[in-house]
Amino acid sequence: MMNLGQMPDAQGNFGEYGGAFLPPQLVDVMKDVAVQYEKIKNTTAFQEELYDLYTHYVGRPSPIFHARHLSEKLGGAQIYLKREDLNHTGAHKINHCLGEVLLAKRLGKKKVIAETGAGQHGVALATAAALLGLECDIYMGEVDIEKEHPNVVRMKILGARVVPVSIGTKTLKDAVDACFMAYLQDPVSQLYCIGSVVGPHPFPSMVRDFQSVVGREAKEQFNAMTGKLPDNLIACVGGGSNAIGLFTAFLEDETVAMYGVEPSGLSFKPGEHAATMTMGTPGIIHGFRCYLIQDEKGEPLPVYSVASGLDYPGVGPQHSYLKDIRRVEYVTAGDREAIDAFFEISRVEGIIPALESAHAVAYAIKLAPKLPKDQTILINLSGRGDKDIDFVVKKYGRDYGISV
Fold first, then answer.
1. Is 299 a catalytic residue?
2. Model confidence at 245: pLDDT above 80
3. Active site includes 72?
């Protein structure tokens, strides 16, 4: 078994997952990015600039909040929230976007490009690019552009070019496809800043490294608050960046149980969910090997979730490995459970979560009553729900007493 603290190996492999399956014209480019990242990431100048931005620009450390009212209502374990929704731009995505854009500047790039689903990665990258003086193109499926209109407007205000993607299902997977095609056309002057712990090496480890600040903070904060580590960690999983960000600091702590929550959508029928770990099998997508929802030919199948940031047919290679060794348990929450959780935490704790984060809250609502009151649950509340409120109220508002 690979040492969890030394993942991945030199080729970017997490056990049998990860690696770099690339067209010839990108092989040397990705090798150079990997080499330069290893040279730059631990230098004093890079770390000092990154952490200065985390502190004075993002607002880190993000706080931990004890959700006492929700905990009391459920009558079981005590629920705590790591408030990544309070970061500048409203989600965890700014953590790795600042790191990626700083890297791009040091590599002499003129432009950063990326895909986005819910728009949080797009907003965060547009923000970092504006701050650090790089051009920015964001590829986004037409379905998500309509669904996440507030974030589209934010990206444009920040000076980014939003490129509509009209192929396939017009959602996240198709935006990744389009962005890879754009990167192939010019891998020299631009850097593809992938939005999760997915893609070819070195991106899964790079994004994890930048997101690991979440877990390091949480470990120290939670111990200071309670005198011990949390008994359970919960985070939603699409590509898996917010989850791996929380989990990494605790991987060697065997007393801490971890749950990654995938979207079961409307059902487990093909095209009605994005529960990659639950329903997928190992395959290759977007230059790396992972669990994948695929057909008999190995082609990705359409996926769906009410949360645009979770509807991806693959998942981070490190998550795939952690599933196989049973260090993390991957579970599901459906659309209706996520919407119920969205309104529950809004009305009980006064916190409107992103629909992605609502999947994690939904599983905590199921788990907490089964646990004794001296147990604790820490949820990575990865984003706020500003981007989702128009969609949620339009589609579900009447069910929760909101007239539209």
1. no
2. yes
3. no
